[in-house]
Amino acid sequence: MVSVCILQAASGEPAGVSRVLGSDSCATSGCHGGAGLNRGAYHIWKRSDPHSKASATLTNGQSAAIARQMGIASAVESASCTACHAPLRNVEPSLFTPDSKAKAEDFSCANCHGGAENWILSHTRPDYPKAALEKLGMRPLGSAYQRANNCVACHQNLSDELVKAKHPPLLFELDGLLLDEPKHWREDADFSHAQTWLVGQAVALREAAAQAAREPGDARTAEIEAIRELLAASGTGWDGAAGTDLVRTADDFAKKISAAPMTSAQSRAALDKLMSHRKPFEVGAFDKVAGEYRMWAVGYYAERVALAIDRLNQSAIAAGEKTAFAESALDELFKAAQPPKSFDADAADHFVRKLDQLADSHVQ
């Protein structure tokens, strides 16, 4: 399976090579518990990052209702729930160091960065090669592809069982997730919102295709076809017809986009193409999707194209371009992107009108 689950992230790579120490090992004042961006990373994460409090969600009424629907006695104790909301509870005891305080944690630095036992001292040396740190178990997160793999398992995939139990829907959009994440790191000089968005969509397609192989269904096909249409419409080189293995094709595309810088001109071109693309809203669109689910595909596309326009617009702003959209018009577009299962012809017409109004709202 291509996806990288959060439990693998927590326990290091490969399993058992570098054991989990716990977030306290990172929090001293001389390391990430002091002042300044890198020195204060632990406090930013602990105070403001939603991941540090993810397990609290399992105690609310909604989680209790989902657990009842699934025949689970307690969401707090079920691995079906803790796998994403409290992943350290699922880690084998042998993967913690004997004195690790992480045994009492639900989330720690290890969930994203890997078990630190073998690299905690070496990673402070500026001359130490990143490739060597990776071999010691430190998870690389520099590229959009690496970040997407680390996040997608819990932010994209929902089993049919969870969907039936009315778990809130998930829509993976990497750049937006990183924007909401309180930054305890510095981006590289060539960081691109557009590239991060595009890689995230390719990885989302990969995961949707992999899940469809495990749990096929018309609703999942509708989502897959919507993402394929989005990638094709962006004019960024996606060829969804290449090969028959959609999982591998999407993964290869994500790697390719992540490996090459994305210029502001390329980002702007993608934005212009998506702004003018109306094929998904025409009669007969998404003919590979079962008839009763075709409007779902239109809804999935509307959701993702609204997010795409927002992120590509942000990329233009970050590049210093003066052209942007009126914030009120962007808000109206997001409001028009209703949940896919409630999308119909009227909703599609309304969304297109808002898209047209957005195109007319350019401010100089």
Walk me through the structure.
The chain is 49% helix and 0% strand. The chain is an all-alpha fold and 364 residues long. The chain folds into two domains: 1-140, no CATH class; 142-364, no CATH class. Helix 10 packs antiparallel against helix 11 (218-233) and helix 10 packs antiparallel against helix 12. The model is unreliable at 1-16 (pLDDT under 50).
DSSP summary, beta strand count: 0
Quote the distance from N terminus to C terminus: 47 Å
Counting H and I runs of at least 4 residues, what is the number of helices?
A: 16
Low-confidence spans: pLDDT under 50, at least 5 residues? 1-16
Provide the domain count. 2
Residue share in helices? 40-55%
Query: What is the typical, i.e. mean, pLDDT?
Result: 89
What's this model, at a glance?
Helix content is about 50%, strand content about 0%.
Structural topology:
Elements lengths: L5 H6 L29 H8 L12 H10 L8 H7 L24 H4 L16 H6 L8 H12 L4 H5 L9 H7 L12 H22 L3 H16 L12 H14 L4 H13 L17 H25 L8 H10 L8 H15 L5
